[in-house]
Design a protein that fits this description.
The protein is an alpha/beta fold. It has one domain: Nucleoside phosphorylase domain (Rossmann fold, 3-Layer(aba) Sandwich), CATH 3.40.50.1580. It is built from 7 helices and 9 strands. The chain has a 5-stranded mixed barrel. β3 and β4 form a beta hairpin. The model has no long low-confidence stretch (mean pLDDT about 90). The structure holds hypoxanthine. Hypoxanthine binds next to β5, β8 and β9.
Length: about 280
Amino acid sequence: MFNTETITLSQIDETTAFIRGRISGSPKIAIVLGSGLGGLADAVEDAESIPYNEIPHWPTSTVLGHQGRLVNGKLEGRPALIMQGRAHYYEGYSMAQVTLPVRVFQRMGIETLIVTNAAGAVNPQFEAGDLMLITDHLNLIGMAGANPLRGPNLDTFGPRFPDMSRVYDRELQQLARQAAAEAGVLLREGVYICLAGPSFETPADLRFLRAIGADAVGMSTVPEVTIARHGGTRVLGISGMSNKANLDGNTITTHDEVLAAGRLLVPKMIRVIRGVLRQAGI
Ligand code: HPA
């Protein structure tokens, strides 16, 4: 059977060649849209889109709220390649499959990756509907062994033991703060923690996550960002709080709630991302 635990450079290049043949231009920015946030791709001008299931080796999302297509076009006049939906580890994909899109972006010459996600607010000061600039992350899933860099190192991209001391680009963080301020959008800041999912957390899980320094919890982003940094791609990460974490055990979290909050979050996310793209330096 086809080994999906590791992805080879020739598979990455096969996917890269396919996408290059289907889109025009050479975008330098890629944007990943998380659960319920796909609406942002509707703001793209001159859009060309490719359904994920047509792209060789590309993981297709099975989750409600993830449209599953790659959209190439312009946002604020800047060429951008947008993933409308992403695949997750909990769907049964390997870490190599989940992060293949980022490797392909790197081969295509993408220099900046903007990642978004829907997350649970672990910081008690955060409310559903808030945006959070990711200033750092806790790679709990990676610490537990599921790191996307496990396996033979792809030296073409980066070293065996890559530095992770400044994962989220400081200049891009500053651009996001400015963009949010100009758009009148409250932008919280904090640490995102990635769990495998798909079950939501118990109140005891959440008290643990809070104690170790997490402000928001989700089931994505960190694997993609780890691969991005390994290959030298600059990263900006923004989480949308879809629900308050159930620290006291008195409320329940549902995927419908996550999707409903996404509809509230999209207009804010669009304003901040548009503002970032409008500025020089990206
Ligand atoms: N926990 C984990 N992942 C999530 C949550 C949550 O509460 N909300 C959205 N994604």
